[in-house]
Every structure is written in structure tokens, then in C-alpha cells.
Design a protein that fits this description.
The chain is α+β, with helices and mostly antiparallel strands. The protein contains nine helices and 18 strands. A seven-stranded mixed sheet has the order 5-4-13-14-15-12-16, with helices on both faces. It binds flavin-adenine dinucleotide.
Length: 367
């Protein structure tokens, strides 16, 4: 496995649990910083095969505020919407869980190249390691994924985040649309800080630093510390997940919800599915292609619908975002997606039925 983020660690834990010999190579020494809002969805928690210890939980939030321009709506779900975690602690825990299951976890080991040679997968990390397969779970910053998907899409996102000291004005997830194309600004509450960030289509975020400063100021927050930028896949899941003995998981495979930027759940699940596929391939000689089928049928095709919705919403932001604020039932329905009670496809079908009537009503109200 290359990479000890949620995808690599979950794959390593699952594969070791299935009795495979696993070596995980992670370039950083953990616990390491990772730019993230730190919102763990219910779906992500569901995929974990252990219960989350209380010490890695910063907060559990039940409410959400969504704004577009001057309009905003507060939704109190009356149930947990999200678990706030700090990625250094969370990712370190996942790595420990992989080791506990029997994986050899080697940190401080950067893999420079992966290739196939003489019927084996080879990872070059200073010394060459040979195995039956190599899982590339390097996130979206690396270059190894190009061995499987050489044509990375130009459409990519970029996020800039700051950990700001101070108490939150709103105790839940605060999401503000309208500032960034195909993205939003967020303020998420953690135990000792607020995660404040902006993200959107990289090509349209000409000056992310200024955009974040404006966002901070407009929320009466100030910050003078270090900002952390990070790319994020926004073009939907990759069709190419496997090449020979090389497999992609997590961000490297494009498994991020383009509408919300959420990726931890899909990283965990794709890692687990990759482990299962490899175990079956070794036992029964089945093709690794079944991995693509598993990922696409569980969440990949739904992420395509998310991409459709993202493009639709951001093409007509002035018309569509206010609808979610004026009609709470739309937001309530939408929030069933991160809770795994529905998917983007079903939500879009529901929206398609309701949209014409809502737009006519809005048009009449504006006259
Ligand atoms: C600013 C920001 C905010 C976000 N907020 C949220 C959120 O609130 N909720 C959510 O669900 N998702 C969020 N996401 C998305 C989420 O962070 C990713 O989807 C998730 O981290 C993907 O996990 P991964 O394991 O694929 O990759 P990563 O978490 O990026 O892990 C990759 C690992 O591979 C290692 N690595 C890289 N190259 C090599 C190499 N050559 N050799 C060895 N090791 C290597 C890295 O050090 C890293 O530890 C956010 C993303 C960003 C950028």
C-alpha cells in the first residue's frame, strides 16, 4: 500500500484481516498534519469496523446553517449529522488499527515509483519492495496515480484552510455558498479551534489567500497563522481504477463528493473494497476489474450524479441555491444523502419533479 491516509490504512487493515501479508509505506511520520475540515459523515462512521474512541472526537454536531448571500437557513436535525475529528489524530488511529490487524506499517518512507516487473508489483522506496499487487492511496497531490490514470482531468478543486482559535458563533456546520465556483466556504467547530476554509474549482479561484481573508473578515474572524492549501478531485470518480497489478483508492481514484468535498467515507470504503478484491484475486484468480464494479455500484455512479448536481447548481446559483433556503424540505431531503438514507440519483429525481413548480412560484414572488 502506498499512503497511510484513510484509504491506505483501511485497505491495509482489511487486507491483513483477510490474512494477506501487507506492507504500508507512508512518507510522513504520524501523527501528521492534513488539511481538512474534519467533518466525518455518518456514512464514514458506518464504514469503520471499530467504534471511534471518545478522545479522537472533537465534537458531535446535530445542526447545519447554509447561507447564500444574505439568505440563510438553520436546520436542527435532532440527530447527529457529523462527527468532528482532527485529521492528525484520526489518521494516526487508522494507521494503528492497520498495524493492530497485522499490517507492517513503515512511516517516513516515500515511494518514488511503482511499476510491474516479472509478474510482480514493485514499489521503489529507496529499496525495492515486491508484491503481488500495489494499492496507490497517495491522495490527490502525488504523481504515482498517473501510472493507472495518465490523463488526470484538468477540472480540479483547491481548498485553503486555517485552524482559527476562538469560539464559534454557530455550534454546527456552517456552510456558505456563493463565494467560490463549484465550492463554498465553511466554519466547522472543533475542540480547540474552528476549521475555517474555502474551496472551489482551482481554475476559478485566482487568489485563494485573498478569498479566505475576505471570508474570515466577513465572519468577524481574524487569523495570522499558517494557511494550508490542498488540491481536491472535483471531476467525479475515475473510470480507470486498475492497471495490471496496480489499483487506485481514495482521492487518487477521484472518490470525492464534488458537491460537498467529502471524501473520507469513500476513501475508507474504497480501501476496504480493494482489499477484498485483491484477496479474492489471490484465492480464486478472479480479475481485479470487479473492484471497479464494486466501487461504482456502491457509490461511484452516485458520485457522478453529485457531479451533475454540482454543475447544475453552480451554473444557476442565483436561482437554485435560494430554493434550498426558502424550502427547508429540500434541505432536509438532501441531508439524507450523507446519512446514507438516500443517494444523489434519488434526490435529483425528487428535485426534477419539484423544481418547475418551485421556480414558477419564485418567479411569481419576485414580480
Ligand atoms: C481542505 C480540505 C478539507 C476537507 N474536508 C473534508 C471533510 O470535512 N470531510 C471529508 O469527508 N473529507 C474532507 N476532505 C477530503 C478528504 O480530506 C480526502 O477525501 C481524504 O483525505 C482522502 O483520503 P486518502 O487516503 O485518499 O488520501 P490522503 O488523506 O491525502 O492520504 C494520502 C497519504 O499518502 C501519503 N503519501 C502521498 N504520497 C506518498 C508517497 N509517494 N509515498 C508514501 N506516502 C505517500 C501522504 O503523506 C498521506 O498521508 C477535505 C479535503 C481538503 C483538501
Amino acid at each position: 500500500m502506498v499512503g497511510g491516509g484513510p484509504a491506505g490504512s483501511s485497505a491495509a487493515r482489511a487486507a491483513a484481516g483477510l490474512g494477506l501479508r501487507v506492507v504500508l509505506l507512508e512518507m510522513a511520520r504520524h501523527p501528521r498534519y492534513k488539511a481538512c475540515g474534519g467533518a466525518l459523515s455518518e456514512q464514514a462512521r458506518f464504514y469503520l469496523d471499530f467504534s471511534l474512541p471518545q478522545e479522537v472526537v472533537d465534537a458531535e454536531v446535530c445542526s447545519l446553517r447554509v447561507s447564500f448571500g444574505r439568505k440563510s437557513i438553520v436546520h436542527d436535525a435532532g440527530r447527529r449529522l457529523s462527527t468532528m475529528i482532527t485529521r492528525s489524530a484520526f489518521d494516526h488511529l487508522l494507521l494503528e488499527k492497520a498495524a493492530e490487524a497485522g499490517a507492517d506499517v513503515l512511516t517516513g518512507r516515500r515511494v518514488r515509483r511503482v511499476r510491474e516487473a516479472d509478474g510482480a508489483a514493485v514499489a521503489d522506496a529507496g529499496e525495492e519492495l515486491r508484491g503481488s499487487f500495489v494499492l496507490i492511496a497517495e491522495g490527490y497531490r502525488g504523481r504515482l496515480m498517473r501510472s493507472v490514470r495518465p490523463d488526470l482531468p484538468d477540472e480540479r478543486g483547491f481548498c485553503l484552510v486555517a485552524e482559527v482559535a476562538g469560539r464559534c458563533q454557530f455550534p454546527g456546520l456552517d456552510i456558505q455558498f456563493g463565494g467560490a465556483d463549484m465550492g463554498y466556504g465553511w466554519i466547522f467547530p472543533h475542540r480547540h479551534f474552528l476549521s475555517v476554509g474555502i474551496g472551489g474549482l482551482a481554475s476559478r479561484l485566482a487568489d485563494p489567500k485573498t478569498a479566505l481573508e475576505v471570508f474570515l473578515r466577513s465572519n468577524n474572524l481574524s487569523f495570522s497563522g499558517r494557511l494550508h492549501g490542498h488540491p481536491i478531485p472535483l471531476a467525479g470518480p475515475s473510470m480507470k481504477l486498475v492497471k495490471g497489478r496496480m489499483i487506485l483508492a481514495g482521492d487518487a481514484a477521484g472518490f470525492v463528493d464534488p458537491f460537498t468535498g467529502e471524501g473520507i467515507a469513500y476513501a475508507i470504503r474504497s480501501g476496504q473494497l480493494a482489499a477484498r478484491t485483491v484477496a479474492e484475486a489471490l484465492a480464486d484468480g478472479i480479475s481485479l476489474d470487479s473492484y471497479r464494479h464494486l466501487c461504482w455500484s456502491e457509490f461511484g455512479s452516485d458520485l457522478r450524479f453529485s457531479l451533475f448536481m454540482t454543475r447544475l447548481m453552480h451554473r444557476h446559483p442565483q436561482r437554485l441555491f435560494p430554493l434550498f433556503i426558502d424550502h427547508p424540505e429540500l434541505l432536509e431531503r438532501y441531508l439524507k444523502i450523507p446519512g446514507s438514507q438516500t443517494g444523489y440519483r434519488d434526490f435529483l429525481t425528487y428535485l426534477a419533479w419539484r423544481l418547475p413548480g418551485l421556480l414558477i412560484r419564485r418567479w411569481n414572488d419576485c414580480r
